[in-house]
Amino acid sequence: MSYKIVKDSDGRVIAFGPNEEAYEPFVAKGCSLEIVEEAPPAGVVPVPEPVISVTPWQIRKALNQLDLRDAVEHAVAVADQTTQDAWQYATEFVRTDPLVVNISLALSKSGEELDSLFELASSL
Question: What is the pTM of this model?
Fold first, then answer.
């Protein structure tokens, strides 16, 4: 079985697994995709981070504090209807969700910046 490793522009692994189609949105946004035939050797995939999820209120408050709210609102406004619906009606935002990753890539934000946003939001 082959495995796919998706890395962001900083070289950080953001997704891993056997399903290449699930990672196409990441690659379309500039992430790299590596295919390995065996499970990756030690050190290729970091220890999984806990999934960080925050409420819509928390993410919006954090975006306001970082002066990113208008940029995110604009990126969502020009996105497809599914993205717009997700932004408007989501009951939680998960750091690793493709919607979140795609918006951060559209805004040229690094994985570290996205982590910082979620850390701030989770503290509010």
Answer: 0.62
